[in-house]
Design a protein that fits this description.
The complex is a heterodimer of chains A (102) and B (621). Chain A is mainly α and 102 residues long. Helices cover 76% and strands 0% of the residues of chain A. Chain A is built from three helices and no strands. Chain B folds into three domains: 1-250 and 263-277, no CATH class; 279-512, no CATH class; 573-620. In chain B, 73% of the residues lie in helices and 2% in strands. Chain B is built from 26 helices and two strands. Chain B has helices at residues 6-21, 27-54, 85-108, 115-134, 138-156, 163-194, 199-209, 215-231, 240-243, 249-258, 263-270, 272-276, 279-302, 306-326, 330-357, 375-389, 396-410, 416-441, 455-470, 475-482, 499-523, 525-533, 535-545, 550-568, 573-594, 600-620, and strands at 62-68, 78-83. The N and C termini of chain B lie far apart (83 Å). The chains are: A mainly alpha (102), B mainly alpha (621). Chains A and B meet through α1 of A and α25 and α26 of B.
Chain lengths: 102, 621
């Protein structure tokens, strides 16, 4: 099985990360923000996998498992928070939630 | 002698109890505790004294070190007490006179609201004074020194609701602080040069390392003299004592007559080795004493307030002690301290009775004819007055003052001018003392008596009156007793006057003063008024009444400029640096808090941009 070259893999991860970051910056809906975060996490995971394949080390895959677990936990907490916010403010607009300013 | 530490500890403990729980105690309990602790302390002192004189310890001194206070490098001051004939005599007088005055105050202050506060201060004072006297180390002595200064401040301003009393208290504190500063500089100098503040070691090193008249010795002695001058109200720092009379009368008797103001005398006597190697400083001591006794004597002649007469008299009598120290008559100075403590405390207590009896009348010109109204007070005060004025051959004051005047010419460091100053001072003393007595007790009754002293006030008067007479006969035993601690006076070889000749002239001076007082203040009072009415007399009277204008000069030279500077520098210019820093950080804070917009996306952008910048920097290297 032909290996995916390191450069292509990292490029893909970089593109995914940038897409996630852009989503984080431009979207105002909290759900979409969370989804963008997931994309960024997976981009980071992809970088690990690519690196693990390149050097034939299992460490990268282990790290990816960690990231998966963490992302799941994060989503659980994040969705709970989103629900609370919606209960309280009847809105999911990030910019509307700016009471904590200096 | 093991009980030595109890002497200061008892009044200190009582002061603490009174200060912390005083308001819970009844008046009776407060007085019992206040006077009782000092009485116990006096008893312990007596026991120690009997022990000491019965079986003198080796070297005629006993040291009790309780613990080491601080230990920094070579600097190890100790909390330790040093008992020798000098400190023993001083402590005996302080505790017993203090006890009598406490007894007196128990009745005198009976109607005061802050009864326990008064006793707390007085006990704290006695404890500090004893610490000062017994201290083994100059640093501990300094602690006592500042302690008595604090108590003096607190007690002068005891009736703090009257602004003038507060002003007098501050004046006393600040003026003595000028002297204290000089003294602390002196201590620094002694420590840096000789490496110890333990008094006995220090004196040995002074004698061993400093030659007579060496610069350091003179400077150190002059700085210590500065401290003594401030505390003992001598020229040029005498201005605080007359104003200090704002305090309750027992305070004036205890602190501003009998004990605290003689702390300077004690300091010089304690460090006499230092002064002996600094002859010019010792000459300065004598000159200060001689000048003070005259200046204060003339001022006492013109005062109206009975307590101010006595205050100037105190300044003048301490001038005698300084004169004695200055000519090397160490023992005579301590002898005069003792007799002065008796009769001056008595005079103040008597004055307190009179002021109380006449409903707070202070002016001697509105008193009169009290001889038959207050007989006990009259007789005791007459005895004290005679003792102060030096009634020949009977009273204690005659023996001690005459000794000083004679030594002023007969001692090796004596000079004729000192003798003349002392003699003129003796005449003045007799004059102002009998002016007081004739004005207060003789003539027509001017103000009706509204209150008579009770037993607690009368007994101390009687005991002190007895001591004012008997004290004189202690002369020879006392001088012999003091010999191990203080060297005898070196008599000059050329002779000069004999003691008998000098004494006869002093007796004459007493008689002249007495008859002048009789003439001006009893027989023909019109003469005194005529004297004050003529222009020269009026000017002198005003000048002396204002204490030779020292207050005015100090006010113009120091107080006004200081207030002016304080006014100009209202926004302390040193502070502007610090307020500048505060302003800058607040400015930056405002700028930064603008960035805290509360917009999460904005923060995210900041983080992303920051990370990108970081990566670029790392890669670009």
């Amino acid at each position: 099985m032909a290996e995916v070259p390191l450069r292509d893999g990292l490029l893909l991860a970089g593109i995914l990360f940038s897409l996630g970051l852009t989503g984080l910056l431009v979207r105002r809906n909290l759900i979409m923000v969370l989804m963008s975060l997931e994309v960024m996490l997976n981009a980071a995971g992809l970088a690990f996998i690519v690196a693990a394949a390149r050097w034939h080390q299992a460490d990268g895959q282990v790290m990816f498992l960690f990231i998966l677990a963490m992302a799941a936990a994060e989503v659980a907490v994040g969705l709970a928070l989103v629900r609370q916010i919606y209960e309280r403010f009847r809105s999911l607009d990030v910019d509307a939630l700016s009471a904590m300013k200096g | 002698m093991r009980l030595l530490w109890l002497i200061p500890a008892l009044p200190l403990a009582s002061a603490m109890v009174l200060a912390l729980f005083g308001s819970l105690l009844s008046r009776r309990a407060a007085a019992t505790l206040g006077a009782g602790s000092v009485g116990l302390s006096a008893l312990v002192t007596t026991l120690v004294a009997l022990d000491f004189s019965g079986a003198p310890p080796a070297g005629h001194s006993y040291t009790q070190v309780l613990w080491t206070w601080i230990k920094v490098g070579g600097f190890e001051p100790q909390i330790g007490f040093y008992l020798d004939p000098l400190s023993l005599v001083m402590v005996l007088v302080v505790t017993w006179v203090g006890f009598l005055i406490h007894l007196y105050s128990a009745e005198f202050m009976a109607e005061d609201d802050s009864y326990h506060r008064f006793f707390a201060y007085m006990n704290l004072f006695v404890a500090s004074m004893i610490t000062l006297l017994l201290a083994n180390d100059l640093l501990l002595l300094y602690l006592g020194w500042e302690g008595v200064g604090l108590c003096s401040f607190l007690l002068i301003g005891f009736w703090y609701r009257v602004p003038a009393n507060g002003a007098a208290a501050r004046k006393a504190f600040i003026v003595t602080r000028v002297g204290d500063t000089a003294m602390s500089l002196g201590l620094f100098l002694l420590f840096t040069q000789l490496g110890t503040l333990q008094i006995q070691d220090l004196m040995q090193r002074v004698a061993a390392q400093w030659s007579a008249g060496s610069t350091y010795a003179v400077i150190a002695a002059l700085l210590l003299l500065g401290g003594a001058v401030g505390k003992s109200a001598q020229l040029p720092l005498q201005v605080w004592l007359p104003d200090a009379m704002a305090g309750p009368t027992p305070t004036s008797a205890l602190i501003h007559a009998a004990t605290m103001v003689t702390a300077g005398v004690y300091l010089i006597a304690r460090t006499h080795v230092l002064f002996a190697v600094a002859p010019s400083a010792q000459l300065a001591v004598a000159a200060v004493g001689a000048a003070t006794l005259l200046v204060a004597g003339f001022s006492a002649l013109t005062q109206h307030d009975i307590k101010r007469v006595l205050a100037y008299s105190t300044v003048s009598q301490i001038g005698y002690m300084f004169l004695a120290l200055g000519v090397g008559a160490w023992q005579a100075a301590i002898f005069h301290f003792m007799t002065h403590a008796f009769f001056k405390a008595l005079l103040f207590l008597g004055a307190g009775v009179i002021i109380d009896a006449l409903h707070d009348e202070h002016s001697i010109f509105r008193m009169g004819g009290l001889r038959s109204e207050l007989p006990v007070t009259f007789w005791t005060l007459l005895i004290a007055g005679c003792s102060l004025a030096g009634l020949p051959f009977i009273t204690a004051g005659f023996f001690s003052k005459d000794l000083i005047i004679w030594e002023a010419s007969a001692a090796e460091q004596g000079r004729l001018v000192f003798w003349m100053a002392g003699m003129l001072g003796a005449l003045l003393t007799a004059l102002y003392t009998f002016r007081l007595i004739f004005r207060v007790f003789f003539g027509p009754l001017a103000t009706p008596v509204t209150k008579r002293p009770g037993l607690l006030m009368t007994i101390p008067l009687l005991i002190l009156a007895m001591l004012s007479v008997v004290g004189g006969y202690l002369k020879d035993p006392l001088l012999v007793f003091l010999r191990p601690a203080l060297p005898s006076t070196i008599e000059s070889a050329s002779g000069g006057l004999t003691e008998a000749q000098s004494g006869t002239i002093a007796a004459l001076a007493f008689l002249i003063g007495l008859s002048l007082a009789y003439l001006f203040h009893l027989r023909r009072r019109g003469l005194a008024e005529a004297l004050v009415a003529n222009p020269i007399g009026h000017t002198l009277d005003q000048w002396w009444f204002a204490g030779w204008g020292f207050d005015r000069i100090y006010d113009k030279a120091f107080v006004q400029p200081f207030i002016w500077i304080a006014d100009v520098n209202k926004r302390d210019f040193v502070d502007s640096f610090y307020t500048g820093i505060a302003w800058l950080s607040e400015f930056v804070y405002r700028g930064l808090s603008e960035t805290e917009t509360g917009r999460v996306r904005w923060y995210t952008f900041g983080m992303a941009a920051g990370s990108a910048l970081f990566i670029i920097v790392v890669l670009a290297r």
